[in-house]
Amino acid sequence: MSAIIATKPRLAMYWAASCGGCDIAVLNLHEKILDVAAAVEIVFWPAVMDAKYHDVEAMPDGYIDVCLFSGGIRSSENEELAHLLRRKSKVLIAFGSCANEGCIPGLANLSTVPEIFAASYGDGNSTVNPDGVLPVPSWAAPQGELHIPAFLPVLRTLDQVVPVDYSVPGCPPESPRIAEALTALLAGLTGTGPLPPSGSVVGAGVSTVCDECTRTRNVKKIERFVRIQEVPALDPTLCLLEQGIPCNGPATRDGCGALCPAAGAQCIGCYGAADGVVDYGARLMSAFASVVEADEPEEIDRILDGIPDPVGQMYRFSLARSLLRGSRTVLEADRPVVPPGSAAAAAPVGAASPEPALAGARGR
Amino acid sequence: MSAHPVAAPLDGAFEPVILGFTCNWCSYRAADLAGTARIKYPPNVRLVRLMCSGRLDPAFVLSAFAQGADAVIVSGCWPGECHYQVQNLKALKRFQLLRRVVAGLGIEPTRLQLVWASAAEGQRLANEIGRITEEVRALGPLGWGGAGADPAVAGTTVLPVREGAPPPAERDLAEVTA
Fold it and tell me: Per the CB < 8 Å rule, is B168 touching A165?
């Protein structure tokens, strides 16, 4: 086992379409962040230190050893940085739910760009915009032409844009899991331990949240789905799903320690799909439907009415990486504008760029 | 699988592609019976045999839409007649939940239908396939495979690499470093 890198490992962290919670989760290593800072050289981390994109462009290709990339790809800036950081990084990690599966920003794949802008800049409750000003990619200001990044029609996950070497799931990833993942990765890169298999999910388990949950499970039979605030007295030890709370544990990857069910709240699925699950929502639909205690279509519908937002329930964190990826109108808006019959019409949209750093880099 | 793996008719008219999931014990045999009885039904449907409608993972249906199917038929034994007692009722529940989810994504209910057919009901199954084909023809293409979908993404069953997979070759990393 020889060292892949000889120098002090160079670490970068970037935020694309994300909330910054992943950056906070890394800082939340508390005193261990000092160990990280001592063990690595941080070369680029916009959330915590000043940096310019042209500094990254000036780096030789592969200069960054490990890049933690959080956030989905929503703007042309996100996309450009995904390609740039892929090129500059030996190991690119899709860090957190957004980069892996779109997360909450991915739910915007249910709305077209005009709808999103109307909500954000128009009729939002906290918005005052009497002139109806909307962002435009370029603007002729008196001082010269100004440019801002373009808003893309669909949010993509990082691995739908560039090949990704590892995934760290979670919204945000739990800090102890981050420490484990970084420690294992740095050991592999410096030759003091095995490198995790390329393409693998690190910093999480392979089973489901139910496996980590300490609540008692009996035979699940559900006669109604209810929201947690509608139940006056929850049994503190019984499985939440058996009490009619739509708990996403059966489809969700473990690794968080089942914190939410332990605190009396249902799992909402932030760690994404468990091992081997092709489509998170499909797995959850199977799990929920199978325990509905009714055989007549009308009665089944009555019980299912207890899930008021089926798409949001099934895909709260994972819509952008689901099989259908969004709503029909949004994906149609993303259709490339090409003359019918031209060769380009057959070209895939958002094809992964051809520069994987690791042999088995996961590009979907 | 391309978006529409059907030879397009010479006049360029839309021909729906319909995936039909059938049960080994009832609806597949109904289709078989339709064949031996020379009952005609539209060639737009491609039948996939499962051991039971209860085997139907909602991911099969989503995958079919993602890869360009215009409609999906789920079929099985009538309630009370399931070879595995009640698994068709589990299929019914999944179907009713799945229908709500795909509706939320903008797929018309016509494009996902449930048909019960016993092994003796070749005529009924053929009639239902004919009815659904005409309903979908009237709707037009769903076109999910072309609707901004990346063929490399849509419908690909990517299973994450796990323990036992070979680690990345170190020489590949060395190449990048060089």
Answer: yes
CATH class entry, domain A1-111+118-123+132-204+323-344: alpha beta
pLDDT at B144: 86
DSSP A130-182: TT-----SEEEETTEEEE-PPEEEEEE-GGGTS-BSEEE-SSSPPHHHHHHHH
Give the lowest-confidence range in B13-22, B107-116, B168-177: B168-177
Interface of A with B in 73-112 (CB under 8 A): 90, 110
Q: What is the DSSP letter of A208?
A: B
Q: Which of A20-29, A171-180, A332-341, B83-92 has the lowest mean pLDDT?
A: A332-341
Nearest to A290 among B62, B90, B162 (CB): B90
Q: How near does any CA of chain A get to the CA of B62, in Å?
A: 6
Helix ranges (H only) for chain A are 21-27, 32-39, 53-57, 76-88, 97-101, 103-106, 113-117, 175-190, 209-212, 259-262, 280-290, 297-304, 310-314, 328-333
pTM for the full predicted model: 0.86
- By C-alpha distance, the chain B residue nearest A298 is B96
In chain A, which residues have their Cβ closer than 8 Å to the Cβ of B86?
295
Distance, CA of B177 to CA of A189 (rounded, Å): 12
Residues 156-175 of B with CB under 8 A from A: 156-170, 172-174
Domain boundaries, chain B: 18-177
Choose the closest CB to A2 out of B100, B161, B170.
B170
User: Alpha-carbon distance B93 to A296, whole Å?
Assistant: 9
User: Nearest-CA residue of chain A relative to B149?
Assistant: A349
Nearest to A359 among B89, B158, B169 (CB): B169
Report the gap between the CA of A140 and the closest CA in chain B (Å): 32
Domain boundaries, chain A: 1-111+118-123+132-204+323-344, 209-308
A237 touches chain B (CB under 8 A): no
What span, in angstroms and rounded, lies between the C-alpha atoms of A19 and A105?
9
Whole-number Å distance between alpha carbons of A246 and A263: 15
Average pLDDT on A120-133 reads 87
**Could you tell me where the beta strands, DSSP code E, fall in chain B?**
18-23, 45-50, 71-76, 112-116
- The ipTM (two decimal places) reads 0.88
- Please give the Cα distance from A300 to A34 (Å, whole number): 55
The CATH topology of domain B18-177 is Rossmann fold (3.40.50)
Q: Chain B contact for A337, CB < 8 A?
A: no
Q: pLDDT confidence of B159, banded at 50, 70, 90?
A: very low
| Percent helix / strand / coil, chain A, rounded to 5 | 35, 15, 50
Report CB contact under 8 Å: A360, B165: yes
Partners of residue B169 in chain A, C-beta under 8 Å:
359
Identify the H or E element spanning B131: helix B122-139
